[in-house]
Amino acid sequence: MKTRTDLGKKIRKYRERLNLKQADLAGKMGFNSSEIISQIERGVREIKAWELVELTRHLQIGVSEIIGDREPETGAVVLWRKSPETEKELKEAEFLKRYRQYALLEEMSGLRAGRTLPQKKVDPGTLNFQTADRIAMEIRKDLNLGDRPAGDLERVLQNDFGVKIWYLEMSEGSAASTYRPEGPAILMNAKEAPWRRNYNFAHELFHLITWKSLLPETIFKTPGLWDNLEKVANAFASALLIPAEPVTVEFERYLEGGKISYSDLIGIARDFGVSTEALLFRLLNLKKVTKASVDKMFQDPKFRNTDRSTMSACWWQPPAIPERFVRLGFIAYQKGRLSRAKLSEMLDTSLIDLPEVLQEYGLTDQEGFDAEMRAA
Known about the structure:
Layout: H1 4-17, H2 22-29, H3 35-42, H4 49-58, H5 63-67, E1 79-80, H6 88-109, H7 129-142, H8 150-160, E2 164-168, E3 176-180, E4 183-189, H9 194-209, H10 216-219, H11 225-241, H12 244-254, H13 262-272, H14 276-285, H15 291-298, H16 301-309, H17 311-314, H18 323-334, H19 340-346, H20 354-360
Parallel strand pairs: 2-4
Antiparallel strand pairs: 1-3, 3-4
């Protein structure tokens, strides 16, 4: 049984892991003064049950972690495409917390992905754009993504290869990824445009499939390697999402007298699930357009206005909690391996509102629900 002092020391360790000041945590808790946090961490003030629950929520851990013997986790590497300037550690902690929950639900539900994400062996010293093109072709075939990979990429990564995908609404920062013993994971900024998220998925996929060749623990020790790696990951994303042959066929189909309209270019971009800028740079790389013509388009307000006018029709907002995560939790609950209270906690809802939340995902919480069937 932990004493107040032991509990306080544990709280301080988790707070410092997130790079939070006592005042920061006090503000999140709704306390009038940081002195309350100081008293809790010194063990001179008894912590109420509801306060402990709230503290663990803001520290991105479970109650069992703070009252148990487990020490704060260290050494988990998260690679950011663009990291947030504030509360980076907090976002990483939330991402890793959801990662652990995901892995637990896979185990409890008995539903792990049937396939392992391929690993591509690469040499850091010879990593270039040609490498990116080659690996993109291989991965498109390995994952059976077809001619329009953007439309299926997220679904395939989640359902076929068990990539743990989580969305967070962030005012700054972009995508991130990690690869741990329980499998790969991607963090996505829910506020970004759908076509930007598609590009980020492809970018992070490159890191995941080269994780064992380009160990994150070592890449930052080589000057210039990370910058080059990010450029190659961008090239991979373009080659994967905008395959050379299919996009060339579409581009040439709309050519009339050696010209193509703004609206047709924008339509092709939407068809491939990428931004018009990404499409133009890919066409430039494939020598289908000139740099002068691309620069002229970017400077033309008519192009910008036309492009912007098509965006709302393609915009979609990801659910607050991924469908696969909810489904795994529901199956674990129906199998009696996860309590109703724990399921509610994982889905960020109350016991009263749980049925309504499940219904939003097409799941029914009712007595006597038969989660299994017998084979003939």
